[in-house]
Design goal:
By secondary structure, the chain is α/β, with parallel strands linked by helices. The protein folds into three domains: 165 residues, Immunoglobulins (Immunoglobulin-like); 230 residues, Rossmann fold; 34 residues, no CATH class. 38% of the residues lie in helices and 27% in strands. The protein has twelve helices and 21 strands. It holds the Pfam family DUF58. It comes from Maribacter luteus. This is DUF58 domain-containing protein.
Length: 443
């Protein structure tokens, strides 16, 4: 039974059969072909049996191993490698089929190569998950054929490997490196010039054009016989909360990823940068109720707590209760904090319904409301209109786009910081706003 499960006919064998059938057909008119066709038939039968002997004589003809990371990173290209080795004494032709998780909906995965005796090769491919959760890789199937290519033998390795998909760890690591190197501008992150200064002294330095004259240190100036100024640094250990709306408005997909997942990836990367810069980070998720509350802590190990909480966040088909959010923030967040609210408003009427609660939160805290541009509408606006229906569609799209900008101005009139961003630029713009608020001493 084991033999039958691993026994397969190679496609080349059917070509041989087609040639023999043609010979027998032609022998009806060319009688000399008839005995030759029978000779070829017996030769093919002999080669068929000999090929079976070559492939099935060795109990372990090949070995293969799939190497998966401990965690896959959502929305990123994750490398998966397969190492395989041949123990056959001849050149073995390999067809590798990896059974990918059903979430990828990919049924045509195949890699073909060949291996010499005792040769080892490594093949690497990438997968891009767009949903968090458990991904199960099925069988790693290796089909081996000899140079005769008449039959194939299947080897099965590593059945049902499960790997969890977490928020974008790769994206977090990119910004982690930049935060350590203090070179965040490489990804378009702006350097914000300080207006005024905070109260944490850093050093005394020589005066350069543009420095605030109010920071001149007259004692040091007298000693050095040149203008010296005090330099201050951003205040540290300030509480910062990422608040994620998990209502139905965050289910909208862009590039295969829901708005919620963009917010989760941004929260993870931003929290890591804030912790590296010695601030406290926390997290709140809410819809009808406050589902998750992680108090702001400064420990770098606190990032693991945030990661685990983000792994289980999901959206619901309900409208979010901003009144419940306000009550929870008032009760639990007692110190003045920076609150980054990830949400989305498609209509200005939806914003006006929640505006009283946003204003109440902004009285005590620095509130940043983050919502999204509809990139598909922007693409529609940029297209050339060729008929009346397209003009109508463009007009409606421009109306929605204008409403987004009006909502941003409405919030800014009340002193609420805002970020209107494309989903793929969310992380960069969020960190930019954080650096701007810290540099201006608004918190």
């Amino acid at each position: 039974m084991q033999f039958l499960k691993s026994f397969y006919i190679h496609n080349t064998f059917f070509r041989y059969i087609a040639v023999l059938a043609a010979c027998f057909m032609l022998s009806f008119w060319i009688h000399a072909l008839y005995p030759i066709a029978w000779v070829f038939t017996w030769v093919l039968i002999g080669l068929f049996l000999f090929d079976i002997y070559l492939l099935f004589t060795y109990a372990k003809g090949v070995d293969a191993k799939r190497r998966l990371p401990q965690k896959l990173s959502n929305s990123d290209l994750n490398p998966v490698s397969v190492i395989f080795q041949s123990f056959y004494p001849f050149k073995a032709y390999i067809s590798l089929i990896d059974e990918l998780p059903q979430q990828f909906q990919k049924r045509d995965f195949e890699h073909k190569t060949f291996l010499l005796k005792n040769e080892k090769k490594e093949f690497e491919y990438t997968v891009r998950p767009v949903d968090r959760g458990e991904y199960v890789f099925g069988n790693l199937n290796v089909y081996v054929s000899s140079p005769l290519k008449i039959v194939k033998r299947r080897f099965v390795f590593q059945k049902d490997q499960m790997v969890p998909v977490y928020p974008s760890i790769i994206q977090m690591q990119q910004y982690d490196f930049l935060a350590i190197s203090n070179n965040l501008t490489l990804f378009g992150l702006k350097k914000i010039r300080r207006i005024g200064h905070t109260q944490e002294f850093e050093q005394i330095k020589e005066y350069v054009t543009g420095d605030d004259l109010r920071t001149v240190n007259w004692k040091a100036t007298a000693k050095q016989n040149q203008l010296m100024v005090n330099q201050y640094q951003d205040e540290k250990s300030q509480p910062i909360y990422s608040i994620i709306d998990t209502g139905r408005v965050m289910k909208m997909p862009f590039n295969g990823l829901k708005l919620l997942d963009y917010a989760i990836n941004s929260t993870l990367a931003f929290s890591n940068v804030a912790l590296k810069r010695n601030d406290k980070t926390g997290m709140i998720t809410f819809s009808k109720n406050v589902e998750t509350f992680v108090p702001a802590v400064q420990k770098i190990t606190h990032l693991n707590t945030i990661l685990e909480k983000l792994y289980n966040v999901s959206t619901a088909f309900t409208d979010s209760d901003y009144g419940m959010l306000y009550a929870h923030v008032k009760r639990k967040v007692t110190h003045r904090s920076l609150l980054l609210l990830y949400t989305n408003f498609e209509h200005i009427s939806a914003l006006k319904r929640q505006l009283p609660f946003l204003l109440a939160i902004a009285k005590k805290h620095v509130l940043v409301v983050i919502f999204f541009e509809n990139t598909e509408l922007e693409a529609l606006i940029d297209t050339h209109a060729e008929d009346l229906q397209t003009i109508y569609h463009k007009t409606i799209a421009e109306k929605f786009s204008l409403e987004k900008r009006l909502m941003q101005k409405e919030l800014q009139q009340y002193g609420i910081q805002t970020i209107l961003t494309k989903p793929e630029q969310l992380t960069i713009n969020t960190i930019n706003k954080y650096l701007e608020i810290k540099a201006r001493g608004l918190l």
